[in-house]
Amino acid sequence: MYDWANSAFPTICMTAVLPPYLAALANRELGAPAGTVAWAWTAVAGLLLGVLAGPPLGALADARGWRVRLLGVFALAGAAATALLAVGLPGSWRWGVVLYVLAASGFAGANIFYDALLPAVAPREEWDEVSARGYAYGYLGGGIALAVAVGLILHYGEKAVPWAFVVAGVWWAVFTVPVVRAVKEPS
Fold it and tell me: Is 46 exposed, middle or buried (0-12, 13-18, 19+ CB in 10 A)?
């Protein structure tokens, strides 16, 4: 179910809507191809922060037994930053950069704790099946969230683009709650 929840973020914010939108906003101010370069560095910063924070956060979660708690904290923080993109953009592509890096860090961090929960939700012989099912639900959930976002944009035009980020953030947050409430912290 968490794959269903979090896949709204990569489909809308990492792939289909935010990259061209943020690049276009930056290009309007700085001239092309500065927006594409700005997006590339933004994406790198979001990933790099997650990579650097991963090992210490994983060790902390394992040592304290906080996998579920930290999954919730990082997912909800990432979802909030994602929804706030609607406020930061189109007014300032720079605020969009900051909010994206925060959201991407939440995404990466939450995935660390989510992946660590697999042994708690299924016996070893079912891990492949459960993991594959999660990926499938993720593609379906991300696809539906993207369809909603694109439908808004097609119907209302560019002024609806910020609402795509609200869709992604709310989708991610709402569907994270059942996972955090239902999954018990493994020993």
Answer: buried
